[in-house]
Amino acid sequence: MPQLSCGFFVSKSTFLKFVSGTLTLSSAYLGFRKGIMESKQRAVSRLIAQAGQMLLAHGAESTLVGDIMRRMGLASGMSEVEVSLSASSLVVTTVYKEHCITTARRSPDRGINMRVVTQIQRICIMMEKGILDHSLAQRKLNHISPERYNRWLVVVMIGLSCAAFSRLAGGDWMVFLITLIASSVGMIVRQEIGHRQFNPLINFAATAFVTSVISAQAVIYQLGNKPTIVMASSVLMLVPGFPLINAVADMLKGYINMGIARFVMASLLTLATALGIVAAMSITGIWGW
User: Fold this and answer.
1) What is the CA radius of gyration of the chain?
2) Which of 21, 60, 259, 262 is least crowded, fewest Cβ atoms below 10 Å from its Cβ?
3) Which chain regions cross the lipid bilayer (predicted)?
4) DSSP label of 224
5) Per residue in 229-254, pLDDT tens?
6) Rounded distance between C-alpha atoms, residue 289 and residue 277, angstroms
7) Whether the predicted model's global pTM rises above the 0.90 cut
8) Which among 245, 248, 269 has a CA at the least distance from the CA of 259?
9) Residue 100 in 3-state DSSP?
């Protein structure tokens, strides 16, 4: 009969039951611990994917998106974080205690908004400093919402910026006033079409058409010292500068596919704007600036 360390003798069946119970408890403990580890890894993976999704949707460059996602994962205790980006989606893989989880997210374009990008960067820094853990970071991330300026303030500022360009190009105050009106009306059209969720290409073409028709009146009636400046300055709000800059930055930093995709989209927006301007010129009979 087996003898325990205290000197008592027990039956073989009792001893086997004791060993079996010990192994069962040990297995249960290991399973419980493994479940906690997997739960944490899943939560961190969701956090990283959501952060990357928001960054990509609101216009951050690809290098920044990948860097923030990796930093957040490592700050949460992951061993490795791998990120793959495409024009409308992302894939992230986390490795924790030799366990791997891969998740994918779609990332539709939601408009450029640097406030969202800045807020996510702040969350990342606080995680690295130990101020936030992954659960608190998730709560703060869920509370981030794009801040929208008052639409009429945007209309006025766009009108003033385009009108200022007309003055810089040598136009007088009449040119300034007509450019202000044309670009402001064009921005209202752009906002209304965007609010109704139309394709951005249709939005840009329609906005360019309306703006050019209004600004062409300065040429038809010879208003101001250089009326052709009105037509050129009033459509400057449609130049896709941010996507073009991001496209070049992505290609220079190794994200060739992302850079090409963004460059193609910016080129299509430029083409749509040109088509709208040409259509307006055809109707008004004003050719050339």
Assistant:
1) 30
2) 21
3) 15-32, 149-167, 173-189, 201-223, 229-248, 260-287
4) S
5) 999 999 999 999 888 999 999 999 98
6) 11
7) no
8) 248
9) strand
